[in-house]
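Subject: for your reference before the review

Hello V.,

The reviewers asked for a structural picture of the protein, and I figured it would be easier to keep everything in one thread rather than splitting it across files. Below is the amino acid sequence we used in the manuscript, unchanged from the supplementary table.
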Amino acid sequence: MIDSLSIFLGGENRITLPFLAYPPLFISPAIPLAALIIIPNAKLPTIAKQILSIPLLLALVLIPFGFTNGNRVIDLIAGVLNYNLFLRFLELYWVGPLVQDRAAYATVESLWIDFWGCMRTFPQPAKEDTKDLKKGEVKVYKKDQKFYHIILKLLGSIMVTDIVGSYMNTFTGTELAQIYVDRPAFFLVVFFFATIILNSAFNSLGYSIQLFYCLAFEGGSYSSEQWRPLMINPVISSSLDNLWSYRWHQLFKSTWLAFPFRPVRILTDRLLTKKVKNSKSISFIMASIAVFVASALMHEFVIAANMGWPIYSRFYMGEQVIFFVGHGLGAMVENVIKMSVVKKLPKSFTESVWCRILQHIWVIAFGYLSFIYIMKGFMTWGFHHDTPLTFTRPWFNELIRSNPALLSYVGGNVPF
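And here is what came back from the structure prediction:
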């Protein structure tokens, strides 16, 4: 019994499954959860749905700890997906009914929008009269692009991911931690490259998803106004708020708005509304910090599942919390400074190029100093070594081998 349960410690204890068997396993709890939630409560009451959901929700959490494909990129996707499926269904079955006193029910359309809403805007009836729409009218988006426009963007993102990935593949987490201490200027260069590859890798995923949607559901054409890239060059962010609210990927925005943002905001407001004057502002701040905590726990979850609980708890536990909660607090401090200091400064400065430069320096410095906390666990685990894009890797390794002077600017993972 103890040996059989040890697989749920994660890491090397897990059962390795072939590729074709792995994806159906890690999404299998989500299918009945989705099927149950769309059943009208007149046919199946909330309490019955909640009871049936318990083992399925537990399965979502345990599967990444118990099973692996052997490919670390696929394991990363599985862990992230299951974590967010758990949060979304936990809100639908339990948090929403308990906090907002609503039934455990969702329409197929709402689940569809939840899934695609990270990239695609779904038109909703206008709540009031505007310049372009009257109340109740729905905006019609003009299709101005074809599927091959997506292909060009996808190929560009793949090319950048492959080239920069060949460089990042030479490093391990241990090496980068040492470079952070011994060669801080060089670590800044690596930090920029890491940001570039994250931008291109996420956009490769985003354009792939958009291409599928365009071909499968939009007849090969789409409205550019209706879609956004997953990542919008985070390296040029002007504030931490701009980084996380706009430029960073919004893959889980609908999930994290549903839980934890709205429940935390509602509960905090209920608790403080009769005790303090600015309860709504405080509840918004607490809800925003809760989203950063949710993101931190997602990253902690993935590292724990893939490195194994003993190694994770000894060496890496809490690093993701430091990174994400730190950024949440940094964004909060930014807003306080904007309201208390910046608005008192002359517009000749706040709207100048020097102010914008200072803003960019602040974001880069904050990201640079905190990057070690999010990077070390993932890079030590080595997920970046299993990327499927390896077209330029042999050429890049040969370039390094032929030019020994370049060795001091790469990591030690270059085969000779």
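For the response letter, the relevant points are probably these. Residues 2-106 form one domain. The longest strand covers residues 15-16.

Happy to draft the paragraph if you're swamped.

O.
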